[in-house]
User: Which sequence fits this backbone?
């Protein structure tokens, strides 16, 4: 878990940014599939769900534009499963802030099986490193 000061100072602003991209992603899903979003969620399970019960997780990775890789979180610290390890979503929507890529969660997990891992410096969050070209080849671009 994050220290209280970190949570308030660093995490809450990031959460607000995440909500912005979740809203944009949900609008793209509504338009693409002509469906309605039933509600948004604020825990590890998923970010929003449609009336049909399809769950979506949205991840923004702005660094991917510079690195050419996407970071897919799976562990916080040494023992707390997070992200792809714990999600209940059917689909991930991954954005670099310019493009939105839709990928089946199980397909993304398969890509992660062969991926290298890295840790963030501040929070020791661990993630799989997926080449942008590989993610793009296995996903659908949302307009």
Assistant:
């Amino acid at each position: 878990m994050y220290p209280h000061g970190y949570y308030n100072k660093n995490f809450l602003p990031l959460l607000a940014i995440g909500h912005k991209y979740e809203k944009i992603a949900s609008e793209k899903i509504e338009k693409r599939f002509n469906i309605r979003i039933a509600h948004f969620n604020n825990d590890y399970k998923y970010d929003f769900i449609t009336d049909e019960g399809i769950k979506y997780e949205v991840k923004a990775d702005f660094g991917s534009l510079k690195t050419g890789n996407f970071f897919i979180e799976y562990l916080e610290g040494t023992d707390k499963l997070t992200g792809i390890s714990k999600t209940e979503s059917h689909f991930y929507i991954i954005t670099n802030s310019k493009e939105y890529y839709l990928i089946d969660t199980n397909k993304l997990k398969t890509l992660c099986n062969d991926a290298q891992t890295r840790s963030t410096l501040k929070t020791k969050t661990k993630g799989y490193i997926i080449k942008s070209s590989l993610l793009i080849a296995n996903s659908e671009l949302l307009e």
About this structure: The helical segments are 4-33, 64-67, 105-113, 132-137. The first strand starts at residue 37 and ends at 40. The mean pLDDT is 89. Residues 37 and 50 are 4 Å apart (CA to CA).
